[in-house]
Amino acid sequence: MSTNNITSSNTKSAMTGQGRVVILGAGESGVGAAKLAQAKGFEVFVSDYGVITDKYKAALEKLGVPFESEKHTEELILNATEVIKSPGIPSTAPIVKKLVAQGIPVISEIEFAKRYTHAKTICITGSNGKSTTSLLTYHILKNAGLNVGLAGNIGQSFAAQVATEDYEYYVLEISSFMLDDMFEFKADIAVLLNITPDHLDRYDYKLENYAASKMRIVQNQTAADVFIYCADDEESLKAITLIKPIAKAFPFSITKKVAIGAYLEKNTIHILTEPNNQLTMSISDLALQGKHNIYNSMASGIVSKVLELRNETIRESMGNFKNIEHRLEHVAKISGIDFINDSKATNVNSTWYALESMTSDVVLIMGGVDKGNDYNMLKDLVKSKVKAIVCLGKDNKRIHDAFEDDVEVIVNTFSADEAAQIAFHLAKRGDAVLLSPACASFDLFKNYEDRGNQFKAAVREL
């Protein structure tokens, strides 16, 4: 793949910048970082070991930024002043190891972009629920009339928005992979929803390493900043005890009353950021239903109260929010059978939440790329709610081993069409067919969106 050449006038202006920025990965975050780096006068080069999509190639060509695809040319990378790395590239990648060995800083797009904005950042992380909570928080803030952007692991890249917009607030969905390459970044409001086993293949299969990564959400915070966390999540509490955050803490719980933060009492959530100023709302009025979504709504509600938004606006927004695609998304009702797309459930805990919210018997479609999953936490829910499992993936042995004593029927399938058809035949009127894979999608699909879209298309063909 040839390297795209920039014009001489572009080269001249780039060379007057503050050094050479090399960007590894030409996806949403990489191209956004290129746009911002160029705007700030850096010499910029983008390198992707994979194939760059036509959309992002066109964007780089329009910017006049040189790039390469399907290779990393070391002499064009190891001369960088600083490198911005895509979150999907592990620190064990050979080119990253060489950069680190040469003492060249390797950072995330989020770290880079924050240098160029004075906006307040609301940063949301957790193994599960961060997309929903980020979108809900953004929805509330936008409805309240705040000048707010949405970025991070969701939507348009943070760097691209910093380059072209002038927001006063950003809601950022932050993954552990992003946090690993963030060093000087500080969240004004940090939200930790939960810590459950996920991506352990990137963390030496040690939950404590993954938890330490998640706790980087509070790094650099001061006593003037805010930390919101789930007081019911055992792993979060363990990690907090080790790190001892110094920001003002607001816990949320559905099992116990808290003096400040949020709690559930008799189907009413109470959110208070100071003793005499609380918001109450019946959980039946929340747009997002299910126990896990009570947590998500509480977290968003605390953020909103910290920002001193009106109770009426918060209530209205939490009542009319529409959830994201591929997260417990109702697809269709066919012959009295509900089909639900939860393709975004790429880990065991997400699938646990999905099953916990089901009120009927379930035919569960699961499987894909196993990231070191421990299926034990699903066993009780599978025994009580699941009548059959339809495996969707190339290697389903671990699912068979985990559940062969808990369900009578476990079937292997290798396409969304096949999975939907077999699940339809196994279900009866009043049942639900739930796609909630507990695994990544890359064995048969491009990503979880592709998996969800193929499933929805297959259901509509039934």
Q: What would the keywords be for this entry?
A:
462 residues; UDP-N-acetylmuramoyl-L-alanine:D-glutamate ligase; single chain; nucleotide-binding; Protein-Tyrosine Phosphatase, Chain A; nine-stranded mixed β-sheet; alpha/beta; Rossmann fold; EC 6.3.2.9
In short:
With 462 residues, the chain is an alpha/beta fold.
Q: How does the SSE layout of this entry go?
A:
Layout: H1 8-15, E1 20-24, H2 28-39, E2 43-48, H3 54-63, E3 67-69, H4 74-77, E4 82-85, H5 94-101, E5 106-107, H6 109-114, E6 120-125, H7 130-143, E7 148-152, H8 158-164, E8 169-173, H9 176-180, E9 189-192, H10 207-214, E10 226-230, H11 234-243, E11 248-253, E12 261-265, E13 268-274, E14 277-282, H12 291-306, H13 311-320, E15 329-334, E16 337-341, H14 348-356, E17 362-366, H15 379-385, E18 386-392, H16 397-403, E19 409-413, H17 416-426, E20 432-435, H18 448-460
Parallel strand pairs: 1-2, 1-4, 2-3, 4-5, 6-8, 6-9, 7-8, 9-10, 10-11, 11-12, 16-20, 17-18, 17-20, 18-19
Antiparallel strand pairs: 12-13, 13-14, 15-16
